[in-house]
Design brief:
Layout (H helix, E strand, L loop, with lengths): L16 H17 L8 H6 L3 H28 L6 H17 L6 H12 L4 H31 L6 H23 L17 H12 L8 H29 L5 H17 L8 H12 L4 H17 L2 H28 L1
Helix pairs in contact: 1-12, 3-4, 3-6, 3-9, 4-5, 4-13, 5-6, 6-7, 6-8, 6-9, 6-10, 9-10, 9-12, 10-11, 11-12
Length: 343
């Protein structure tokens, strides 16, 4: 399956309106916090951040890109391909930008990663297989973390049987989606995947990669397990980011509450029909955090900061890396054409 990343003039199709949607979402969340008559507003909390925690938040987020890159590097090493981890991590930052601002059925980021790997000398089949194995590892890690969050919530005091039943049903639905993806992962063509499965971005990535992944390229169970562990670490770092944000706001929450809120909100975003899960993640996170007893203003400020650190701040470096990769791709293409003419 191929997806057009560029227009007729060869320029990338960047959908800047997504940035406007992010800004509107932030304004709506902060505005909603004023409806709750609380001692401190979300704006007050944001203006009095504990700056010493900001450095930790940045370190945690940088770590997510290195562990994601480490998962790709782990697979590539099984193919006897050695890459620069910093360069691979930079591709992860670019993926955040492309996934949000280049409308390509949710596949843009993965396609750019594969192209970046190929430009670095990785064979096309190995690049596709790397993204396939990572997509499977991501889904496995995601399912494990959601199951853990649901289990922790089940034993959390103060929740009614109705809420527990809803969370259990929701978790089962997620298991069905992921299990269905596993069952059809060996389908030969993208078009053969069930339409309802292709509504989910990560499933589309897996389907597209699996379609073109060479069947003879396999890695051992040990490498696959490492990929899952590295992806699990990424979720742990994102959860720690949410925890650190509330430390910075002066309204601390427990690591368990941070994990439950982040993972259940991520699950809602994955199953949401809204492109990119925009707004659905924030709504779910706000609901869970408020049920845990956090003031709505603090929850709103925390959710806004999480979007800023995980989505908005990486935009500028992501865009710069994106432009750099385009220049590299053009130069590599020119060298290949010159080599072919020489032959």
């Amino acid at each position: 399956m191929t997806t057009d990343l560029f227009n007729d003039q060869g320029r990338p199709k960047i959908k800047w309106s997504v940035m406007i949607a992010n800004a509107v979402l932030i304004v709506l969340i902060l505005g909603a916090s004023f409806a709750f008559r609380e001692e401190r507003t979300a704006a007050d909390l944001l203006l009095h951040l504990r700056l010493q925690w900001i450095a930790l938040i940045v370190v945690l987020q940088v770590g997510t890109y290195f562990f994601t890159g480490g998962a790709w590097d782990m697979v590539l090493r099984r193919f006897s391909v050695h890459t620069n981890l910093v360069g691979i991590a930079a591709l992860g930052v670019e993926k955040v930008f492309v996934d949000q601002l280049v409308p390509t059925l949710g596949l843009g980021g993965s396609l750019m990663i594969m192209r970046g790997l190929i430009d670095r000398g990785v064979k096309r089949g190995e690049a596709i297989a790397t993204m396939t194995i990572d997509a499977v590892g991501y889904l496995a890690a995601f399912l494990l973390m959601v199951a853990l969050a649901a289990g922790l919530l089940w034993f959390e005091p103060g929740f009614s049987p109705t809420v527990r039943s809803f969370v259990l049903s929701f978790t089962i639905a997620l298991v069905v989606v992921v299990a269905a993806a596993w069952l059809v992962v060996q389908r030969a063509e993208f078009a053969q995947w069930p339409a309802w499965l292709l509504r989910f971005r990560k499933i589309r990535e897996l389907a597209a990669a699996t379609t073109e992944s060479p069947q003879n390229l396999r890695v051992g169970a040990k490498a696959s397990l490492w990929v899952v562990l590295l992806e699990l670490t990424v979720f742990v770092l994102d959860t720690a980011t949410l925890w650190a944000i509330f430390q910075a706001l002066g309204d601390p929450i427990s690591p368990i509450h941070a994990l439950v809120a982040y993972m259940l909100a991520s699950a809602v975003a994955m199953l949401s029909v809204i492109p990119g899960g925009l707004g659905s993640f924030e709504a779910a996170a706000l609901a869970v955090l408020h049920v845990f007893g956090l003031p709505f203003a603090a929850a709103a400020a925390g959710v806004v900061l999480l979007r800023v650190f995980t989505c908005l701040l990486p935009m500028l470096p992501g865009y710069l890396i994106f432009r750099f990769e385009l220049i590299v791709h053009k130069k590599v293409g020119a060298l290949r054409r010159t080599s072919e003419r020489g032959v």
